[in-house]
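Worked example (supplementary).
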Amino acid sequence: MSKARLEAFSDGVFAIAITLLVLSLAEPARDTPDLGRTLRDQWPGYVAYAVSFLVIGIMWINHHALFLRMRATDRTIQFLNLLLLMAIAFLPYPTGIVGKALQEDHGLVAAAAMYSATTWFVAIMFSGIWFWAAYGRRLLVASFPDAEIGPSIRRFGIGTVVYLAILGIAFISPIACLIGHAVMAAYYILDQLTGPGETVEDAVAA
Amino acid sequence: MSKARLEAFSDGVFAIAITLLVLSLAEPARDTPDLGRTLRDQWPGYVAYAVSFLVIGIMWINHHALFLRMRATDRTIQFLNLLLLMAIAFLPYPTGIVGKALQEDHGLVAAAAMYSATTWFVAIMFSGIWFWAAYGRRLLVASFPDAEIGPSIRRFGIGTVVYLAILGIAFISPIACLIGHAVMAAYYILDQLTGPGETVEDAVAA
Amino acid sequence: MSKARLEAFSDGVFAIAITLLVLSLAEPARDTPDLGRTLRDQWPGYVAYAVSFLVIGIMWINHHALFLRMRATDRTIQFLNLLLLMAIAFLPYPTGIVGKALQEDHGLVAAAAMYSATTWFVAIMFSGIWFWAAYGRRLLVASFPDAEIGPSIRRFGIGTVVYLAILGIAFISPIACLIGHAVMAAYYILDQLTGPGETVEDAVAA
Amino acid sequence: MSKARLEAFSDGVFAIAITLLVLSLAEPARDTPDLGRTLRDQWPGYVAYAVSFLVIGIMWINHHALFLRMRATDRTIQFLNLLLLMAIAFLPYPTGIVGKALQEDHGLVAAAAMYSATTWFVAIMFSGIWFWAAYGRRLLVASFPDAEIGPSIRRFGIGTVVYLAILGIAFISPIACLIGHAVMAAYYILDQLTGPGETVEDAVAA
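After joint prediction of all chains, the assembly is encoded as:
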């Protein structure tokens, strides 16, 4: 029951944060001479919107898959989950900053770094939640196989390293960093769509 | 269970997007000399609000009817649904643009085209979700009649063509295009209110 | 099931609209010399926020009580409910207008009229939903007594007349109109708190 | 059933208010010369965001624990809960004010006082809800021990005094006041994480 309410609350925050992304798009000024052109020139804002939408969407699916494998939550999970949601709910802010920086071609390093730091924080929280739940089978459902615990913890750990690397790339090439975020989102989607049963969700469905 | 959570999440995004529409209305400036007149002159913004509210509301009812006919979801549905929600959550943005363009009588082609492109994308996603679920009865409930599969897929396909046509009209007469959106919303409402059992929802209720 | 989802969707819109009210408060400019005084001078905005919060909250309780007495919904209810939600979700806009008009002591007639027109529309929709559900016991639960149908329909009808009167008062004395809204909210709260079993909710609880 | 819907509605308001906090962060102006520095200089805004996120998150957990111990709600609870939510949904506003006042080092007393007054109001409502439910076991679940009623009411009462004291400190040292809020949040988290079974939630879980 408590777990169900935690998931419902988290789902709410995911749904609200993903829908608030649209507010990161600035409305054109009232006296815009060529509205069509202005709207077209804003394409980086739309790209940032779409990438962040997929990023939050995938995080939501991932969150779902994670909690499906837990038989209960405890206070540590509640606290880590609150920190995770804090970063998810923050994402619309750097999304707007990235969109505007791309459009003005100015301040991209700072924008990409802020965006990446947020996703890195999310990756750490996911890893922490899973480690706390899986280590010693503290909160795992009975059907989760022992042999999967180590690899799954490692996979989450690799995720935190990858996002740290993407954060580092922001200071060298912010464009490469942003492409990295799009690639990671695409990778998770493809993994979801084609994965041969190794993903968390598959194991749960099995 | 997974289907229930997907629907709950989608419901959340629909409810939030429909409620965020109000933020597309600009507040009058502080030093407005005649507030009554200013508020009256903003009538296109209210019309855009009302039409978009009905549009999203009908899409929500449609979404509901669609998922009632599926016995389960899979990852393709999850992904297509995420793209569908991406467009729904985007609608408050072009709604605000259309309201302002109507009010200033400036930039209407661009505004109407952006609005129509968004709804066209939504129509494509609805069609894609239904095709994926219905073709070969991949994810259909058992009670859905075989004879209805072909016609229902065709009906969704026609929807995508109609919205593409409305998008095209934006470049000829943006006003006609916007009236087209209002007519489509009214059509779906009337269809819902008077339809002789041919709509998706009827079949489910039966 | 369909009724449950309609209620859940409506609850979502109520919850979001009530929480968006806070966005109707303008943030003080960056260079405000005396922030304390500026925040104090904004008291009409806080009053508008609090009154609207109670208004939407009471509408939510009322909505709840209404649907508890229905055994099912149909398409007409779905459509009327969508129009009802359209007005509820609109309320943050006139709330902000009223708060600012009160603060600047300028444009109060227009602001109060817009606010009152919105609540009048809500009252009409409530009345329409109840009439459609109750007349001829179309959608009523079996436990609802026949003798209550006429009086309850009349009570909702009186509500629409009262809100129309409050709208009319806006053009004579906008302050009296706004006090009328506060009084109506207080009346419904007291009725909820002390009512001798005549309210909708009592009958359901009985 | 009515209690479940009240909790679902409250959860919605908590989830939306916590996610709207991000809108309290002002986006940098378009012509910012050094975006990285501007984003770094906004650190008080991020701190205010994080503290308020934890504050609302803890209030949500507390709300949850409270209602778990009630077997039903009545109209007084509904009304007090509405006032509680009114203050929760208001929090994004003073959060933004505090963040900006910290950043500009100007108006801190007013900002801290407004923030503290809001949390004090929340504490009073929590105390009132619990007193109404617990006094004379009016609405308590049967498993709640008699011996716990007095201490639990007193604990909530102490909470209101502490938040009043923090409000008073705002007028002497606003920084100390804000640290007080962070300490209170940390205290509740630690209490949640390490408490020896004396907290409300423990008793319920037992």
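Two points are worth noting when inspecting this output. Residues 108-134 of chain B form the longest helix (27 residues). Chain B touches chain D at residues 16 (CB under 8 Å).
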